[in-house]
Amino acid sequence: MRIMLSGEQGFIYQNLLFHLQEASEIELIPEGGDQEPAPDYVVYVYNDLDRLDKQGCEIAQDIKENAISDCLAKGAKLIVLKNDSSKLSGTPSKNLVVCQLPQLFGKWSHPGTDNPVGEACKLVIDGREDAYTKSQTLELLYIDDLAAALVASFGMDDPAEVLPGVTYQLTAEALVEMLVRFRESRGSLVMPSVGIGIARALYATYISYLDKAKFSYLLVNHADERGNFIEILKSESHGQISCLTAGPGVTRGQHYHHSKSEKFLVVKGKARFCFRNLLTAEYHEVTVTASTPEIVETIPGWVHNITNISDEEMIVILWANEMFNPDCPDTNPGKI
C-alpha cells in the first residue's frame, strides 16, 4: 500500500508520520518524491494543532500547488483529517473522505488553552490544578487511536467506518482527578490501573509533558543489618512490587501469612527457601539461583524464610498480592 502524507506539519502530522513509517505493509511516499506508480491514498492533515508554520492553509490551494493534484488525477483516494469546524471549499468530490476529528490529545501536542488535556497535564504537574477552569464534558480522541484507525481504513470500501477511531467522554473534573492520581503515585507508590483505555492514553500523555528533571524520582530504602528493602510500586487491585537484598549467609523472613501470598525472583546470587507447615510441621526446601529464573511462591499457613547461600550480595524481586497495611500486616513470626 503506497501512502502519501501531506498537509500541516504539527502534532497530528508528526505522530501519524511515525506510525505510517512503522507499518510494514505501508510504503510511505514523501511529498515531492517518486509518485510512480501513484499512491493509493493521500492523507491530508488540515488545520493541524501546533502546526509548524502557524499560518494555516487552504486545502484547495495547497492541492493546486503541490503533487497532490497529480496523485488524485491518477486515481489516488484523498483522506482529509480535519479538527476544526470550517467547511472545505474547492476540494475534489471523487474518492474523497473528510474525517472530522474531536479533541485530540497525546505526546508532542502543545499544552495551550486550545488543548484541554495538555493544559490540564501541565497545571497538575506544576501543582496548580486549581487553576484549571474548564467545566464541560470533553469528547477525546487519543492520537495513537487515530493512527491505528487510519492504518486500518486503508483498503476499506468506506474508511469512515473506522475513522476517526475510539473516542472517550470525560468530564473536566474527572480528567483532573485522574491526572492528580498519576502525580501523587510517585510519592504514595499506589498506581492506578493504566494498562487499557482512557487511563492508558492519559498516562502516556501526562508523562510526556514531564520536564527531563522529573524523568526519575527517589524511593525510600528500608535498610537494616539484613540488607535493603525497597517498595517499588503498589496497586489496590494487584498488590505491590518490592526489592530486597541480603549479604552472604543472611536469612530474612521467618514468618507466616494467613492470606497474603508472595512471589520471589532471585536476580543475583543464590537462595535457599525453607518452609514449615504450621499444622503438620512438614518441611520443604527450595534452592534457586539467578542464572535459572524461577519463581518461589509463599503459601498461607507455612512459615518461610530465605537465606543467601552465595558468597555475594543477593538481590530479589518480590511481588505480594496485597499492599502492605501496617494496621493489618498479616505477617506473623514463626520458626522453621
Description:
The relative contact order is 0.10. The protein is built from seven helices and 18 strands. Helix content is 22%, strand content 30%. With 336 residues, it is of the alpha/beta class. The strands form four sheets. It has a five-stranded parallel sheet with strand order 2-1-3-4-5. It has a five-stranded antiparallel sheet with strand order 9-10-17-12-15, with no helix packed on it. It is elongated. Helix 1 (11-22) packs across helix 5 (143-153), helix 4 packs parallel to helix 6 and helix 4 crosses helix 7 (197-208). Mean pLDDT is 90; it is low at 50-57. It has helices spanning 11-22, 59-65, 68-73, 116-125, 143-153, 172-188, 197-208; strands at 2-7, 27-29, 41-46, 77-82, 96-100, 103-105, 137-142, 167-171, 229-235, 239-246, 251-256, 262-268, 270-277, 283-289, 295-297, 302-308, 314-320, 332-333.
Write a compact overview of the structure shown.
With 336 residues, the protein is of the alpha/beta class.
Query: Could you describe the largest sheet, including whether it forms a barrel?
Result: 5 strands, parallel
Cα-based radius of gyration, to the nearest Å: 28 Å
Strand content: 25-35%
Give the number of helices.
7
Low-confidence region ranges: 50-57
Write the layout of secondary structure elements.
Elements: E1 2-7, H1 11-22, E2 27-29, E3 41-46, H2 59-65, H3 68-73, E4 77-82, E5 96-100, E6 103-105, H4 116-125, E7 137-142, H5 143-153, E8 167-171, H6 172-188, H7 197-208, E9 229-235, E10 239-246, E11 251-256, E12 262-268, E13 270-277, E14 283-289, E15 295-297, E16 302-308, E17 314-320, E18 332-333
Parallel strand pairs: 1-2, 1-3, 3-4, 4-5, 6-7
Antiparallel strand pairs: 7-8, 9-10, 10-17, 11-16, 11-18, 12-15, 12-17, 13-14, 13-16
Helix pairs in contact: 1-5, 4-6, 4-7
